[in-house]
Amino acid sequence: MELTWHGHSMWHVVVDDTSLLIDPFFDNPHTSLGPADVPTPDYVLLTHGHADHVADVGAFTDATVVGTPELAGWVADEHGAEDTFGMNLGGTVECGDVYVTMHRADHSNGIGTDYEYSAGMPAGYIVSDTKPTQEADEDAFAFYHAGDTGLMTEMRDVIGPFLEPDAAALPVGDHFTMGPAQAAIAADWLDVDHVFPMHYDTFPPIEIDVSQVEREVAATGADAEVHLLDGDESYTFERPYASE
């Protein structure tokens, strides 16, 4: 699984022959790319309807756009996307070579400048190379994109023990989402091996010293490695994942 962070909450995920783009928003200081510089993904996953997560979805209408039914319908109506499908919290869908599970995020979810439309519940996604089951599979690997969220006990009680992510992209910018301290608790509750900070330094309210994330994770006693990626930088998990 190859993970590329394009700044803010935008990730490009490649598993075998399937590529996904999560929350396309190129007007951020951590990327030098524009929508035309990115190969068209097979799927675009949208966590919620705020502009800093859906601003550039119109450039990828040749992909299959995935989100809540309300958000997928808005993309079809607003941007003319012909291939969309809505899913909802708790559901798992097969997207090419990967399985995508939608889980709740604690946030708001309006669409438009004045948030005149509701996009349903905000969400995060667990992207895995095998279908989530309760049968042990050491070769399986799952990446959790938490979306915009505050700390929530579902990370400890549901996502960690039952969906078992190995790596997590967590918002750390504070103000609109978790900050470093709560993100560190999330990493501990999720019991992940790898943490990728996101959603920081895009706007003045979320400018932080991102190295604080490393210190906070260490303070929790969590056995997670924090990866502070540069914009447009990739990190690859090679099979067999158990050796990572």
TrEMBL record:
PANTHER family: UPF0173 METAL-DEPENDENT HYDROLASE MJ1163, UPF0173 METAL-DEPENDENT HYDROLASE MJ1163-RELATED. InterPro entries: Metallo-B-lactamas, RibonucZ/Hydroxyglut_hydro, UPF0173, UPF0173_UPF0282_UlaG_hydrolase. SMART domains: Lactamase_B. GO terms for molecular function: hydrolase activity. Keywords: Hydrolase. Residues 7-199 form the Metallo-beta-lactamase domain. The keyword Hydrolase applies. This is UPF0173 metal-dependent hydrolase ACFQKE_14675. It holds the Pfam family Lactamase_B_2. SUPFAM superfamilies: Metallo-hydrolase/oxidoreductase. Belongs to the UPF0173 family.
